[in-house]
Write a structure and sequence with these properties.
about 230 residues, globular, mainly alpha, single chain, 15 helices, about 70% helix
Amino acid sequence: MNCEEIIKKLKQKANAKNLAGMTRFGISSKNTLGVSMPELRLIAKEIKKEFKESPNVLHKLALELWQTEVHEARILAGLIDIPELATKKQMDDWASGFDSWDVCDQVCMNLFDKTLFAFDKAKEYAQKEKEFVKRTGFALMASLAVHDKKAKDSQFAEFFPYIIKASTDERNFVKKAVNWALRQIGKRNLKLNKQAIEVAKKIQAMDNKTAKWIANDTLRELNSEAVQKRLK
């Protein structure tokens, strides 16, 4: 399949009912077809099987899909791309092009967190002002906490100052990502759980409504019986 054929396939699976539901959940309707994630994963699996022996071709196809600006094509690009071939410039370009939380999060979970420079980019993006670029930083932190089993605790501890600093950002897509990052780091192991709880308490002490929401939600989960039982 080439890029044109994939876009045609996506358009055939367009679903107005899905699109209406996505919009209610804050997903951008711009260039969006309403194709579900399970369907996108099936298409991605088919594409990766076809180009299993041609990683460079697969990478090129991912870049072409991204350039179409079709919502689902961009998620698909993150699903099929080769992390080892992704560049810092590509990450910067894609992060700047995010206009919806689902594209941002899916690309972070399926591609960005597997690149060699994921930790550095998480910290870099977390300091940016643009809403979805900043969200990328914290979505990347959360994704790394879940997926990178070899990373050291100290690498995640380095994220805490960025989380504290961003905890007063009232923008919906930023504050939810900050909360997500802190919770996922705190669920990684008992040591990080204790550190994340202390960070949440510092945030809770701030005279800021957003910070208190982030802290209270984090503390509720990290102190929960389910999380504590699993970690111990």
